[in-house]
Amino acid sequence: MILIINKKNHMIKQAIIPLAGLGTRMLPLTSVMPKELMPINGKPNLQYILDECIDAGIKEFIFIISKKKLSIKKYFFNDNFYKKILKKKKDKKIFEEFKRIKRYKKMIKFVYQNTPKGTGDAVLKCQKLIKNKYFLMLLPDDLIIKKNCSKEMIRLHKKTNASIIATKRVERKTLSRWGILSIKNKKKNYFQIKDVVEKPSIKKAPSNFAIIGRYILPTKIFSEIKKLKPGQGGEIHITDAIKSLIKKENKFYGNIFTGKYLDCGTLSGYINSGIQIFKEKK
Ligand code: G1P
Q1: Greatest pairwise CA separation for the chain in angstroms
Q2: Is residue 96 part of a domain?
Q3: pLDDT in tens, 238-267
């Protein structure tokens, strides 16, 4: 019996999604619409992330939103509006969407981050809601298609019993746009992480393996975040909390994911994502 409880405690069933960012890279569109709701091939960006997680066995989502992003809540909690429309119009497509939205709704909880103080601060807002020893965090700017990255990470987590970060090789000239990993014991699809550095200069980057927005984090991270002072750009970075945990001998592995990465955080990236996903579905 005890064994079963322990095993459950290690399962990854919750995913947190920071959604309180201002979306400045996509202004003026984001002044009226959260970038996470902007459609890609007919479906909000965020829904791709949710579907990836559900397929990987996630049962609960924690959305970190702000007062400025209430339309995200409205999108998932507007089923009465749908019900009325459905009564009048017996439209099959709307009915299917209504069912889908109801399913998501049951799984989502909200916490608020009204001042955008960085991903570390966003994660900390979820502390009271996290039930197991590890949880998944996904950054909605980063879509990964063709192969389920969260599933691959959960598999590696089960194998290593450690924290996991999604990673891929990036072009040298872009190194200072990412969190960069210092690596050891590289295997075909994963390696142990020796250190992390947030947006280093090209010269100081310890490798060309970048952090892509998927993390399996331990609850230990909360106490590390509390100790942090604002880093790069005056924000509390999750990268810095991870760095402290690694220094204290906590194991982190980089999962070199096999899917295709799409950066939706800029307008050109967003447009390209639409094209790629459209091609994929043809
Ligand atoms: C964040 C992380 C960074 C990571 C990137 C992936 O940066 O801080 O470590 O490489 O996401 O997209 P941001 O895109 O918020 O500047």
Answers
A1: 63
A2: yes
A3: 999 999 999 999 999 999 999 999 999 889
Which CATH number is 147's domain given? 3.90.550.10
Residue 121 alpha carbon to ligand 1 centre in Å:
14
CA distances from 107 to 57, 102, 247, 277 (A): 12, 9, 35, 26
Asked, for residue 4, whether it belongs to a domain, the answer is no
Q: What is the pLDDT of residues 96-148, one digit of tens each?
A: 888 888 899 999 999 999 988 999 999 999 999 999 999 999 999 999 999 99
Distance from C-alpha of 6 to C-alpha of 231, rounded to nearest angstrom: 36
The total number of structural domains in the chain stands at: 1
- By CB neighbour count within 10 A (0-12 exposed, 13-18 middle, 19+ buried), where does 116 fall? middle
**Does residue 5 lie within any of the structural domains?**
no
Residue among 149, 178, 180, 238 to mutate when testing ligand 1 (max atoms within 8 A of CB): 178
In the reported structure, the alpha carbon of residue 199 is separated from the centroid of ligand 1 by a whole-number distance in angstroms of: 8
> Can you tell me which atom of ligand 1 is nearest the CA of 196?
9
Q: Tell whether 3 is covered by a domain.
A: no
| Regions of the chain with pLDDT less than 70 | 1-10
From the alpha carbon of 237, which atom of ligand 1 is closest? 8
